[in-house]
Amino acid sequence: MPSSASGPPSARTSGSAFSAIFGRDAGFTALYTAYVTSIRCVVPEYKVNLDKLIRLLIEEKRANPSNYALVVLSEGAEWEGYQVREYGEADAYGHRKKASVAESLADEIKRRTGEETMVSDLTYDLRSGDPDFVDKLVGLTFGNMAYDAMLDGKTGLMSALVKGCYELVPIPDPKLGPRKLDVATMCNTERYRPMYANKRGLPAFLQRVVGQPSKPAGRVPTS
């Protein structure tokens, strides 16, 4: 399943393309990428069944006139029976380099099915991409808020968007660990795709606030 960072597989080839993206502990970037491109994704918060993923990709490829299928994976993504491999010395944060999960998945699928595969690492393409209007607006506002806080002698705070509004909030305790996707409301675990239904009432980035009731978004309470 071949692909490039900028588009679908070449007309000269066919198969499955696996795009790796940052997300050591959480799948936000992979999920949002899959959401806006309508492709499948594999994230650290949910281990997929490899046989089922292969079946879905082959079905999608055969139904596609261009004869390809795409999937994006977080660097920390895993499937049942697989664990991300690490190598090298740990950095200042205790992180070691991770072996490419996309390469591992592509090799496993080719071994099982004989299907042609192609891997693209989108991490640096995204990091070096030109900022859009929202990137510039939010980034500039966050910076100005932090500068104002410094002038006021405030410390231990960070700029944030809270319920759609700009706020200064306490820097989270590292002991809380990384923020995770809400799999129940954001991931279709049957199709290995983002969840597109029931978005009414959610913030711009579709993630529920910690402690928010887990009722379906947009449904009117009956009591």
Task: Give a quick rundown of the structure.
The protein is of the alpha/beta class and 223 residues long.
Which terms would index this structure?
single chain, 223 residues, alpha/beta, Rossmann fold, four-stranded parallel beta sheet, 10 strands, disordered N terminus
What does this structure look like?
It is a single chain. By secondary structure, the chain is an alpha/beta fold. It has two domains: 1-129 and 181-223, Phosphofructokinase domain (Rossmann fold, 3-Layer(aba) Sandwich), CATH 3.40.50.460; 133-175, no CATH class. 29% of the residues lie in helices and 19% in strands. The strands form four sheets. It has a four-stranded parallel β-sheet, with helices on both faces. The radius of gyration is 20 Å and the shape is globular. The model is unreliable at 1-7, 9-13 and 210-223 (pLDDT under 50).
